[in-house]
Specification:
The protein contains ten helices and seven strands. The longest helix has 14 residues. The protein is of the alpha/beta class. Helix 3 runs parallel beside helix 4, helix 6 packs across helix 8 and helix 7 packs across helix 10. It is globular and about 55 Å long.
Length: about 280
């Protein structure tokens, strides 16, 4: 279980310097855009759920010049960074809200894109149900997220020090596929790739994770200060993964997925959301 208040605060703090460290996030956003190249869709309204500083939002504004582009994020400071994208006459409509509780009316967007965000959900089925609700019939969901092998080197190194979780846990693509079907999506497709980033030292890896707001927010995490002896033991354990080039690897399992909302297959009984004005 993730602590949403801490998650929000981490991203609020990270927003200003996020882009400098978010090399992976920018690359995955690029690859998500490439997937849209093969999808023949002319949406009237598009939602970027978990927009961060706007990597995907920027692409959507250019890709769909006649569409209304909505950008939503849990952290207000992130939406302020996203606000910088677009021209004088066309900016994204910004909303600060939790993606598990979308503040939109039903069937209001044709395309929902989410880049490396859904892993911060405590209830994946609920999130997908909300996504399904706001998408119009024949609407498309396209997303990326982290899989369970993400930061496996860090997790294994910490496990030799203590039993406290020091990294977030992530679900596999089969669970994601099941959650999509449960929410009413049709034809879900998921695939995975493993990306390994390397660092000159372990401290730099930890600094980058903190700088992008991705620090551990598990409710069972240790809430005290990290002792020097534990940190030293962790760094020593990480030496087992050191490459022949003297670098320290960090694995990121990236899961991509897309699914459709079928014509006439909207779920009944889902809460009707009241439209709100953008907060910015």
């Amino acid at each position: 279980m993730l602590d949403k208040k801490i998650t929000r605060q981490h991203f609020e703090n990270a927003a200003e310097n996020y882009d400098a460290a978010a090399v992976l996030q920018r690359e995955i956003a690029k690859r998500m855009g490439e997937r849209l190249d093969y999808i023949k869709l002319q949406p009237k309204a598009v939602l970027d759920a978990g927009c961060g500083t706007g990597f995907i939002t920027k692409d959507l504004l250019k890709r769909y010049p006649k569409s209304q582009v909505l950008a939503l994020d849990l952290a207000l400071n992130m939406t302020k960074q996203t606000q910088k994208h677009g021209g004088w006459l066309r900016k994204p409509k910004l909303v600060c809200a939790d993606a598990e509780q979308l503040p939109f009316k039903n069937e209001c967007v044709d395309l929902l894109v989410s880049n490396l965000m859904i892993q911060w959900s405590n209830d994946l089925s609920k999130m997908f149900l909300g996504f399904h609700s706001v998408l119009k019939p024949n609407g498309l969901l396209l997303f990326s997220t982290f899989g369970p092998d993400t930061l496996k080197e860090m997790r294994m190194s910490w496990s030799s020090v203590d039993e406290t979780p020091h990294t977030s846990s992530f679900v596999d693509m089969h669970e994601i596929g099941d959650a999509l079907l449960k929410a009413g999506f049709i034809n879900p497709v998921t695939d995975m790739e493993l990306i390994t980033m390397t660092y000159s030292n372990v401290r730099q890896l930890m600094k980058d994770i903190k700088q992008i707001g991705a620090s551990n927010t598990n409710t069972e995490r240790s809430k005290g200060l990290m002792g020097k002896q534990k940190l030293k033991a962790f760094e020593q354990a990480y030496e087992n993964f050191k490459t022949n080039d003297g670098l320290y690897p960090a694995s990121w399992e990236i899961i991509y997925g897309h699914a459709w909302v079928g014509e006439g297959l909207k779920l009944e009984g889902f809460e009707k959301y009241i439209p709100i004005q953008p907060v910015i």
